[in-house]
Amino acid sequence: MSTEQARPPLPPFTLESAKEKVQKAEDAWNSCDPDRVALAYTEDSVWRNRADFFSGRPMIREFLKRKWAKELDYRLKKELWAFTGNRISVRFEYEWHDDAGFWFRSHGNEQWQFDELGLMQRREASINDVPIKEVDRKFHWSRPVAV
């Protein structure tokens, strides 16, 4: 028996629960907190992100740390594309800039597969980056400053 905490909503998904799962993922990823985000995945979760293939929560955490060290002022929007049973497909866009100040909009899609506790077992992501000018950004957002 797993000692993992359930991450509702749980499969099988309805339209409402699939939308909720997508929104929770968007909120978590926008936190840019690798520890928080990694908890949504099974200990042995299998990932394909662009041309990177890896598995396991420690590898996910390390990947996310590298990602957000490179992709500064990251802001993501996800949209439910399709769902069935324990699977969800999303399209997304996110914007970020590198340490030289060049802005990008990244477009992609993801396929997710969940276990019975609502943890993601598998994530397949295809992503393309497009250089943009800062003035052409869609997603303006600033992180709250901790006091």
Automatic annotation (TrEMBL):
List the InterPro entries hit by this protein, alphabetically: DUF1348, NTF2-like_dom_sf
Its domain of life reads Bacteria
Protein name, as recorded:
DUF4440 domain-containing protein
What species was this sequence derived from? Answer: Polaromonas eurypsychrophila
